Amino acid sequence: EAGVAQSPRYKIIEKRQSVAFWCNPISGHATLYWYQQILGQGPKLLIQFQNNGVVDDSQLPKDRFSAERLKGVDSTLKIQPAKLEDSAVYLCASRELRGGQSSYEQYFGPGTRLTVT
Amino acid sequence: GENVEQHPSTLSVQEGDSAVIKCTYSDSASNYFPWYKQELGKRPQLIIDIRSNVGEKKDQRIAVTLNKTAKHFSLHITETQPEDSAVYFCAASKAGSARQLTFGSGTQLTVLP
After folding, report:
1. Over 70: is that where the pLDDT of A98 sits?
2. CA distances (Å), A79 to each of A43, A82, A89, B84, B108, in order?
3. Do A55 and B106 touch (CB under 8 A)?
4. How large is the C-alpha radius of gyration of chain A?
5. Which residues of chain B from 49 to 68 reach within 8 Å of chain A, CB to CB?
């Protein structure tokens, strides 16, 4: 099966600019996650969707970050305005929901490396 | 919320030796513990996982052990090879539809030829 797709792979912006990332999960995967991975650290969850609804966005800095998954498939994550500390890799992951029972494994995309100067 | 601690942060072993990475978790409700391998510039990839109804799981040269009482779990890699060099992350997740993963801080494993 095709994996999780993300674009762009790399992005360099100046602080205070805006940026958007795109994720296409594995076909049929109802659950989608966005993670932020700062260099030298483990991924940290930003937001979780199930279909087109938000399950948890408690760790999303909502003053500058926003995310949507309008049709329950693709998702976009936006940062506006960006700060230097937003430099990180942004990972998208998806998980299957089989017949109402959720599976365990999350499949990760290749990530978008953001550099804010 | 859940807190996962991982040790050591770096580990160097000679090719053919074994490597052990340890993690502890704080939330006794956690019941799923995956291990991910991340090579430089690449996506995290699941290498093995264990659920709380099992104490040990093995897949070829890789094994994971879980001690629910002590709330810790470990990754064991035997007969290490240079291609095992990567960053390894442990994670923990609770039951329920959310199944959010809380990751450890990672271990940089270097296998010296």
Report:
1. no
2. 18, 6, 13, 35, 30
3. no
4. 14
5. 49, 51
CB B6 within 8 A of CB B22: yes
Residue B63: CB atoms within 10 A of its CB come to 18
pLDDT digit string, tens, across residues B52-91: 887 899 999 999 999 999 999 999 999 999 999 999 999 9
Q: CB distance from A29 to chain B under 8 Å?
A: no
Place of tokens 């090579």: B39
Q: Is the predicted pLDDT of residue A15 greater than 80, yes or no? A: yes
> What is the distance in angstroms between the Cα of B104 and the nearest Cα belonging to chain A?
6
Q: Which residues pair with B112 in a beta bridge?
A: B14
One-letter amino acid of A88: A
Question: Is A10 buried (19+), middle (13-18) or exposed (0-12) by CB count in 10 A?
Answer: exposed
3-state secondary structure at position B84: helix
Three-state DSSP class for residue B79? coil
Q: What percent of chain A has pLDDT over 70?
A: 94
Distance CA A81, CA A15 (A): 7
B108 with B38: CB under 8 angstroms? no
Of A43, A102, A110, the CB nearest to B99: A102
Contact A94, A3 (CB under 8 A): no
What residues form DSSP beta bridges with A12? A115
